[in-house]
TrEMBL record, chain A:
UniProt similarity note: Belongs to the mitochondrion-specific ribosomal protein mL37 family.
Protein name as it appears in the record: Large ribosomal subunit protein mL37
Location in or out of the cell: Mitochondrion
Molecular-function GO term, any one: structural constituent of ribosome
GO biological process, one term: translation
Pfam family, one: PDCD9
Keyword ATP-binding part of the UniProt annotation: no
């Protein structure tokens, strides 16, 4: 079969490449050497091309069609241009076919944009970005007060380990009629079981009964950070409220020492990346509860990543950032409710804890709000203690894995870490014990 | 022929007359022939009952529970889906006839007469999300969890009713007044306020009473669990299809999702002895599809320890609370028998018993951060349920 010169060339290229033992892909030849020297590559593209790249015009404008159209003829005529008619107006407002007010016409429209952090925000820089936005200094590990509860043998945390392991087995293995429960089922169930064990401790510590869980509570907090307006909004997970606030975790010296700390920036990435910018907003500070609520102090925030599909779940770093932002939002709203909206350093710092999990990995966090003066980059900063990536158990096999008729992984929970559950319980007991 | 004849004569080992050979075994005692039983494969009633008997023996003899479940659930035929929360009229009579239950109004008598008014331990159970109060005395609950009400001799510590009342009021106020919520989703009013209120109420009551009831301290709380049971009751003739004309047992399966369930490790003690007869079971001669009840073919879900062939050896008692957030109705169910199929029900004198109250309001109205008309009796009954425990604890 006679092949054209291009086909032959391609065949020759392929044959040559095959002779050299390389697998080549068809495509544009990529320059592996420095670019050839042409006026464009030396002096840059000409100004017309640059202007065109900056502001692309529609094809009609570029070609400058000012031709005769068949609009007056009222029917298509070959050779004449297609007319562009003005948009049809109904003349009256039909509510079923109404586009709605534009952003500029809405009542709450403001020129200055506001960056909102909500439950779906996955920050690129993770905890570093959340630290900059909330003017916080990070301390690795849990604070000494919580460590003290962990190490206190009088609390009898040992007997509960066995119950915790049974709860894990219940949530991960037993609770279904199918083979294995899905994450949307076992993650909340594991959380409920662990909270139930913690709540039953109120038999021993009566002051624990002054706690109340609130689901689907919404939070709103606004603050300004170096001329950027920021907000935390939306449903904030499961919040445990208590009648008495948690005592401050850090000493006065530590708080004063945060003055010297410098917040990390990540130039050239702006700190508001991945936040939703809106022009229609209300500057609101709302704890989600009315005045007179007896359990007025937020104690712990629980964030569960229970989506079945892995891409819908947050990565641990993004989850930690989200936990920090929402704990900060709850603390800020509470502080503003207690002390007013003026930015100042708090004499009584507000402490809010947060636990995030996806059913297996746990992230523990204790946040202390020291100041509501967040505009400038220096001064007293807030503090956060993060204990990240604690596994509660290594693996939960519903069906034993058998390779070549030998059981490689037996069924059941393996690698249960009681320390993670102890930290969970310690964070629950913090503030009353 | 001659050769044959010769063979017949000359075959070695053949004796013309019997001899006693030393060392031969004595004749076997007992029947010489295998027992005469019905065929397995014939199309007859006797053969059908033989097949059924063989199946029962297989299930009895299965080594593990998984094996038993697999055998019992292998054959899927259309069965009636029974919903405890139903809008059908007089469904309670129908359900009582399906499950051979006697309904006794009021609560079971408490053991200790001289008891302080606040005591009595009971494991309170699932609070169902809204159900109209007309249904309250109806529908026998599925025997999902096992907790029985038992009046305990509440001696030293009886809970402070004021504290429990404040817990209940706090939970109610949080859900209905203090927490700022959006409008309820369409037709989902029960998820907006009563559902969270019940969860909060039961979990905080259970945790505060766990010091007094060790059974509660070892309990576990399930939210929205699945409760299923599959059983046979009565006979019917298959109406159409390739199996037309055959006599089949009527199959039922309950699929229920109660709002909340407390499971305890130990059985609650019985209220009345196993063989007691407290009333009559209604007998309904119509087909269940007239209720209305619909058939579907899907998996048989059952947890086998006891089933209709292996009846319960001790009564299973469970408590239930049916509520819509404001009105509460309390029930106590004692399961005495599971043998409800047409063969096993013939010689079975036992009946299941259900005690039930009418629905009473917990409060009158909530306005401006204040609960008006709080009814202590309802809370007391709930606390009694929660504090119920076996005698030995």
């Amino acid at each position: 079969m006679a092949a054209g010169p291009m086909a032959l060339r391609r065949a020759g290229v392929v044959a040559a490449a095959a002779a050299r033992g390389l697998a080549t892909r068809a495509g544009r030849p990529r320059h592996r050497s420095p670019l050839p020297r042409t006026p464009w590559t030396v002096r840059g593209p000409p100004p017309e091309v640059l202007a065109e790249l900056a502001e692309p015009r529609s094809v009609r404008e570029q070609v400058e069609l000012d031709t005769v159209t068949y609009a007056e003829r009222l029917h298509y005529v070959p050779g004449l241009a297609r007319p562009r008619f003005p948009a049809w107006e109904r003349g009256w407002r039909d509510p079923w076919h109404s586009p709605g007010p534009r952003y500029e016409e809405m009542a709450l429209y403001k020129e200055r944009g506001c960056y909102i952090c909500h439950q779906g925000v996955r920050m690129l820089e993770g905890v570093r970005q959340a630290q900059w936005l909330t003017k916080t200094k990070l301390v690795e590990g849990l604070p000494p007060a919580v460590q003290g509860i962990l190490d206190n043998p009088a609390l009898g945390l040992q007997e509960l380990e066995e119950r915790a392991e049974r709860m894990v087995s219940h949530a991960r293995l037993w609770d279904t009629a199918e083979v294995a429960p899905r994450r949307e089922r076992y993650c909340p169930m594991l959380f409920e079981n662990l909270i139930h064990i913690c709540r039953l401790m109120s038999g021993k510590f009566p002051s624990l009964s002054k706690r109340m869980l609130a689901r689907n509570c919404r939070i709103a907090a606004t603050w300004e950070r170096e001329s950027i307006l920021l907000q935390v909004r939306g449903p904030s997970g499961i919040l445990m409220n208590s009648m008495t606030p948690i005592p401050p975790v850090a000493s006065k010296e530590e708080i004063l020492a945060t003055k010297e700390h410098v917040l990390e920036t990540f130039y050239p990435i702006a700190p508001t990346i991945d936040l939703q910018e809106v022009n229609v907003y209300k500057e609101l500070n709302d704890t989600g509860f009315r005045d007179g609520y007896p359990y007025s102090h937020p104690h712990t925030l629980f964030l569960l990543e229970s989506a079945n599909i892995r891409t819908n779940r947050f990565r641990p770093e993004q989850l930690r950032a989200k936990m920090l932002m929402f704990a900060f939002g709850n603390a800020l709203a509470k502080a503003k409710a207690l002390h007013g909206n003026d930015p100042k350093v708090l004499e009584q710092p507000v402490v809010v804890q947060s636990i995030g999990t996806d059913g297996q990995l746990f992230q523990f966090m204790v946040f202390q709000l020291n100041t509501t003066d967040l505009v400038s980059n220096d001064g007293i900063k807030n503090l956060v203690w993060i204990d990240s990536d604690q596994n509660l158990y290594e693996r939960a096999q519903c069906v034993p894995e058998v390779k070549k008729r030998v059981v490689t992984k037996p069924a059941g929970i393996s690698g249960f870490q009681p320390d993670t559950f102890k930290k969970f319980l310690a964070l629950y007991l913090h503030g009353t014990v | 022929m001659a050769a044959l004849g010769a063979r017949r004569v000359l075959r070695p080992g053949r004796r013309w007359f019997s001899e006693t050979v030393p060392g031969a075994p004595a004749p076997l005692a007992g029947p010489l022939y295998p027992p005469v039983v019905a065929s397995i494969t014939a199309k007859s009633k006797a053969a059908k009952s033989r097949r059924l008997q063989r199946f029962n023996e297989r299930v009895h003899g299965a080594a593990t529970v998984e094996e038993k479940l697999r055998l019992y659930g292998k054959l899927q035929r259309p069965k009636y889906m029974v919903y405890p929360q139903t809008f059908a009229l007089n469904a309670d009579r129908w359900y009582r006839s399906f499950t051979k239950t006697v309904l006794v109004p009021g609560m079971p008598p408490r053991a200790a007469a001289a008891k302080p008014p606040i005591a009595a331990a009971g494991a309170a159970e699932t609070g169902r999300a809204p159900e109209p109060s007309a249904e309250a005395p109806g529908a026998a609950e599925a025997p999902g969890a096992a907790t029985a009400p038992e009046p305990s001799a509440g001696t030293s510590l009886y809970p402070d009713i004021g504290e429990l009342r404040s817990l209940a009021c706090d939970a109610l106020l949080q859900e209905s007044f203090y927490q700022k919520k959006k409008r309820p989703f369409l037709y989902r009013d029960q998820d907006h306020t009563p559902g969270p209120f019940l969860t909060q109420l039961v979990s905080s009551l259970a945790s505060s009473l766990s010091g007094r009831n060790p059974l509660l301290a070892a309990s576990s709380l399930d939210l929205n669990p699945e409760v299923n049971y599959y059983w046979h009751h009565g006979n019917e003739v298959v109406v159409h299809g390739h199996r037309k004309g055959r006599v089949d047992p009527v199959r039922f399966q309950i699929d229920d999702n109660p709002h909340l369930q407390i499971r305890v490790p130990k059985q609650l003690p019985e209220v009345v002895p196993l063989e007691s007869d407290l009333g009559d079971v209604p007998v309904i001669d119509h087909k269940p599809s007239k209720l209305p009840l619909f058939k579907k073919q899907y998996e048989n879900k059952v947890f086998i320890g006891f089933w209709n062939e292996a009846d319960v050896t001790r009564p299973f008692v469970s408590q239930a609370v049916v509520t819509d957030g404001k009105y509460f109705a309390f029930f106590c169910y004692q399961l005495n028998t599971l043998a409800l199929t047409s063969e096993t029900i013939k010689n079975n004198p036992r009946k299941n018993i259900c005690w039930g109250t009418d629905s009473k309001p917990l409060y009158d109205v909530v306005e401006d951060g204040d609960v008006k008309g709080f009814n202590d009796e309802v809370l007391l009954q709930l606390v009694n349920f929660l504090l119920n425990r076996p005698k030995e604890l």
